[in-house]
Amino acid sequence: MTVNDICQALERYTLPLMQTQAIATEPVTAEASGNQSAKLVLAYSGGVDSECLAYGLSLFAQKNPHIPCLLVHVHHGLSANADTWIEHCISQATKYQLPIQIERVNLTKAPRKSLEAIAREARYNVFKKYLNPSDILLTAHHQDDQLETLLLALKRGQGPKGLAAMGVIQPFNQHSWIVRPLLDVSKGQIESFAASVELKHIEDESNQDEQFDRNFLRQDIIPRLKQRWPSIAVTASRSANLCAQQQQVIEQEVNNRLPAFIDDSGAGHYSAFKLLELREQSTQWQSLLLRGYIQSQGFNLPSQSQLEQVLEQVLYAADDAKVDVHCGDYSIKRFAGKAYIVPAIKLAELAKDQKLITDKLVNFVTKPQSELISGDLFELQSSELPSSELISTEAGINRLKVNVVTDGVRLRLPNVEQVSVVFGAKGSTRCQPHFRDKGRELKKIWQELAVPPWIRSQIPLVFYNDNLVAAVGLWVDKRYLAKQQTLGFVFTS
């Protein structure tokens, strides 16, 4: 391996991405990217692997001066030598004529999470800060790292997706990419190159600590495997590529089938997963489709045991059973033959959101009638809600609108009545939605509209005095409809 090989690998993998702007599944226009050139961001630890890549990136930058390049070094605070490593990285960046950013992170231990995983998560959160749409994150993972990743996936009992390990090019952080130009290069080749050019690099003493799984594999297991099978890193990489190909086919087929199982017609704009249709599928497809649904909604996948528990409960528990399976920061619940993903709620933040909605909504609805004209609009944007993602995910309220109009289904203006907005009312509260001939209890209306129990307390209810007159986004009480061409309120969410 030579520096030209590194430079050519960078050009081979990054230039086509930057030229086509093919970020994830959606192209990024010049307007969306602010007319700025996409940049390369190198995760730069100063170890031999990233040092070699930084050395090659310096040549790449000279040949492609129009492409911005940046080194980012993360100070974890775990080693007494960390400050010395910063000095090294800044010194080397100066030699390479590449800009560098130093970021310090504080690591907090978490239950059931290794220090390795916590440090890695902290690093990648830092890198995300420097990535704009179309930017590329470079890492110096190599062939032996791929073997480690594959072995760890086997240890965790992962399927084809985990066994696919790392790809040379993968989507990262929505509209950016991660590129690993050295993934086909062995650790031995990297070390030989570093020695041939007398490249200075740091040695992290924690790499010798075998309490960490990767170090245990690196120091003890992989050398023995290579002694018996010298080409095992190459053949393992081939297996990972085959798994990646198979996983890609699986994901394409899941994406083709999944829309038939998702119901977006529910009140409040939340999606649900159809269980009656899922029961008709084979056990294998039940698992794959549920996984696909969870990922499509932007949540992390549960463990295999959790997934099996979810399937068992949502598909086969008694109809009147309360199904609520916790999966980290969300739960999967069942209602009326459908499954729902419900994020964990921070009640204090949710209460603040509801008070904000209540105050602003009441202030608008109780404006003097002389100040209201047809076409007036009150709009509460999601940016005004501190934890709006909680509300928007559960009840579809990430934008609340009230229009003043003179036609259509609308709530009449209050006649000296006291206006209030509440979240959650007694099920015995009676009202008559505009689409019904007779009044019913609120709990019956919720059931009629198939609104899940955990959503009901998230929907703003408008009262005139003690009478429920409207449920935002759902109905207006028939007795309180505006008549003829008089002004009225239309609530949408």
TrEMBL record:
The protein, known as: tRNA(Ile)-lysidine synthase
Share the domain note from the entry. The N-terminal region contains the highly conserved SGGXDS motif, predicted to be a P-loop motif involved in ATP binding.
Source species = Shewanella electrodiphila
EC numbers listed for it are 6.3.4.19
Could you tell me which HAMAP family the record lists for this protein?
tRNA_Ile_lys_synt
Keyword Transmembrane part of the UniProt annotation:
no
Name a GO molecular-function annotation. tRNA(Ile)-lysidine synthase activity
> Which residues are ATP-binding?
S45, G46, G47, V48, D49, S50
Catalysed reactions listed for this entry:
cytidine(34) in tRNA(Ile2) + L-lysine + ATP = lysidine(34) in tRNA(Ile2) + AMP + diphosphate + H(+)
Domain Lysidine-tRNA(Ile) synthetase C-terminal, chain residue ranges per copy: 419-491
UniProt KW keywords: ATP-binding, Cytoplasm, Ligase, Nucleotide-binding, tRNA processing
* Taxonomy, superkingdom: Bacteria
Localization, per the record, is: Cytoplasm
Q: Report any Pfam family annotated for this entry.
A: TilS_C
What family is reported? Belongs to the tRNA(Ile)-lysidine synthase family.
Q: What does this protein do?
A: Ligates lysine onto the cytidine present at position 34 of the AUA codon-specific tRNA(Ile) that contains the anticodon CAU, in an ATP-dependent manner. Cytidine is converted to lysidine, thus changing the amino acid specificity of the tRNA from methionine to isoleucine.
Keyword Cytoplasm included in the entry's annotation: yes
